[in-house]
Design brief:
The chain is of the alpha+beta class and about 210 residues long. It has six helices and ten strands. The chain folds into two domains: about 55 residues; about 140 residues, Transferase(Phosphotransferase), domain 1, CATH 1.10.510. The strands form four sheets. A four-stranded antiparallel β-sheet has the order 1-2-3-4, with no helix packed on it. Strands 5-8 form a two-stranded antiparallel sheet. The protein starts with 8 loop residues before the first strand and ends with a helix. Pfam families: Pkinase. Belongs to the protein kinase superfamily. STE Ser/Thr protein kinase family. STE20 subfamily. It comes from Leptidea sinapis.
């Protein structure tokens, strides 16, 4: 959809910093179509995965003008979104997860800050750097056992399912994302993040 030549883009402003300071998101204009886009620029020297990111210094995506659902909650709906808005957002998140699961991926980071909304009310699920494939050497695994990569403050633990946090031989599968959707539902409806008062050290034992 977008040309990979960086000269075809005009950066206009910084939207936010993300990935624990490892990247910055800019609003930009795709000049061939005069189309607004978002560009995520990675700082390779801050990444432990330099060999991978050196191939993908810039990621271009449609501009989601309203930002994330977390942004919307913090700015306008501190006590939670209206029920209809929650239902519409959750429907689109579930459709996105349905697609990912059919491709044998587990998202592992469903949260309001990873649910983006554009000016027309379209919803996009981001946060895919935490996603994991269930395919190993061409064969689908029944369970996974590894934790997602940590974010800068381990906040992602708040949305993770108990079976994922347990780290035992039973492992976890796509259903762990459905638990996170439940957490997202509470976050959208109430404006607050469940378990936000629980110390990180207790997440693995008490959740």
């Amino acid at each position: 959809m977008f040309n990979p030549d960086i000269n075809d883009y005009q950066l206009t402003s910084i939207i936010s910093e993300c990935c624990g300071g490892m990247a910055v998101v800019y609003s930009a204009i795709y000049k061939p179509l005069d189309h607004s886009v978002a560009i995520k620029r990675y700082f390779v020297d801050k990444s432990k995965e330099k060999a991978t990111l050196i191939q993908e210094l810039y990621v271009v995506s449609p501009l989601m003008e309203f930002g994330s659902c977390r942004d919307i909650l913090d700015r306008y709906f501190r006590d939670g979104l209206p029920e209809l808005a929650c239902a519409i957002i959750l429907r689109d998140v579930l459709l996105a997860l349905q697609y990912l699961h059919k491709q044998f991926y587990i998202h592992r980071s469903v949260r309001a800050s990873h649910v983006l909304v554009d000016i027309n009310g379209n919803v996009c699920l981001s946060g895919l750097r935490s996603a994991a494939s269930m395919m190993v050497q061409g064969r689908k695994q029944k369970q996974l056992h590894n934790l997602p990569p940590p974010d800068h403050d381990n906040a992602n633990l708040l949305w993770l399912s108990p079976e994922l946090l347990e780290q035992n031989l039973r492992g976890y599968d796509e259903q762990s994302d459905i638990y996170s959707v439940g957490m997202l539902s509470c976050e959208l409806a109430n404006g607050t993040i469940p378990f936000s008062e629980v110390p990180t050290t207790l997440m693995f034992t008490e959740k």
